[in-house]
Design brief:
The structure is a single chain. With about 280 residues, this protein is of the alpha+beta class. It has 3 domains: about 70 residues, wza like fold, CATH 3.30.1950.10; about 80 residues, Outer membrane lipoprotein wza fold like, CATH 3.10.560.10; about 70 residues, Roll (Outer membrane lipoprotein wza fold like), CATH 3.10.560. It is about 25% helix and about 35% strand. It is built from 6 helices and 15 strands. It has a 5-stranded mixed beta sheet with strand order 7-6-10-8-9. Strands 12-11-15-13-14 form a 5-stranded mixed beta sheet, with helices on one face. Strands 2-1-5 form a 3-stranded antiparallel beta sheet, with helices on one face. β13 and β14 form a beta hairpin. The longest helix is centred in the N-terminal third of the chain and has 31 residues. The radius of gyration is 30 Å and the shape is rod-shaped. Belongs to the BexD/CtrA/VexA family. It is found in: Cell outer membrane. It is a multi-pass membrane protein.
């Protein structure tokens, strides 16, 4: 019984140690995900019971603010809590305030931004307000993909001093067995997300609804004709031709089967039956 009691105590202590490790890991993760102040950010610094030390200012291009009594304080690149501690330590070490309680509020985000261009509903520059912003978060800020937009995204930027160009297949980000962390990458300052237009196929001739149409993934010739309302009474399947531009710019004329796939830019022509 005594041995069992000791084993139970050890188990409880072990779980407590694991809980402490988990809490420490969560705290470290939260600290890593904290927003980093950057040039252009507007901040307000408040010191409890010291209204004369309240300051509202913009972070300079060099990451510095000019603070009363302390002079230039470099907070660029720091998280909010680290910037608060830096100012508090300066006030305490300079014997200006005995126990300073410093609060820094981020009023306007300008230092860390990313751009979204192309076929989105609200293209433009958007602030990176959290360090864990991902491609889908940035795309949501831009209002999502427009009706003319496709599934292919291109992310450009810098990582570790080297240029980054990453092609992202948007549907695969949400696929059941996808590694979302690998495809839905973290956004960093200066990144540009490009949303390409949707692929288009053109259909004309003896069809009910001729004109351009969105080419869905894996679409066959039969599906294209169905999307065009089908053939007219004068149309014939034997008169269907697909005009496709090759890599050298020359146009090839083909007579594909109905279950053959079509490609972006294809022109489907349905001839009139002679009988």
């Amino acid at each position: 019984m005594i041995r069992l009691h000791h084993l139970l105590i050890a188990a409880v202590l072990g779980l407590g140690g694991l809980g402490a490790q988990a809490q420490a890991g969560a705290a470290a993760g939260a600290a890593a995900a904290e927003y980093r102040l950057g040039a252009g950010d507007v901040v307000r610094v408040v010191v409890y019971q010291n209204p004369d030390l309240t300051l509202e200012t913009r972070v300079s291009e060099t990451g510095v603010i000019s603070y009363p009594l302390l002079g230039n304080v470099r907070i660029g690149g720091l998280g909010v809590s680290a910037a608060e501690k830096l100012i508090a330590d300066g006030l305490r070490n300079g014997n200006y305030v005995k126990q300073p309680q410093v609060t820094l509020v981020l009023l306007q985000v300008k230092g860390n931004q990313a751009s979204v261009l192309g076929q989105v509903n609200r293209p433009g520059r958007f602030p990176i307000e959290t360090a864990d912003m991902r491609v889908t978060d940035l795309l949501a800020n831009a209002g999502g993909v427009a009706s003319t937009g496709g599934d292919q995204l291109v992310l450009t930027g810098m990582r570790d001093g080297k240029p980054l160009r990453l092609e992202i297949d948007l549907p695969s980000v949400f696929a059941a067995n996808s590694d979302r962390a690998a495809s839905d990458v973290l956004i960093q300052n200066g990144d540009v997300l490009w949303v390409d237009r949707a692929p288009i196929v053109y259909i004309y001739g003896e069809v009910q609804r001729p004109g351009p149409m969105r080419l869905e993934r894996g679409m066959t010739l039969m599906q294209v004709l169905a999307a065009g309302g089908g053939l007219t009474q004068r149309g014939t399947e034997r008169g269907i031709r697909v005009h496709r531009k090759s890599a050298d710019g020359k146009v090839q004329v083909m007579q594909p089967a109905m279950d053959d796939g079509v490609k972006d830019g294809d022109v489907v022509y349905v001839k009139e039956s002679l009988f």
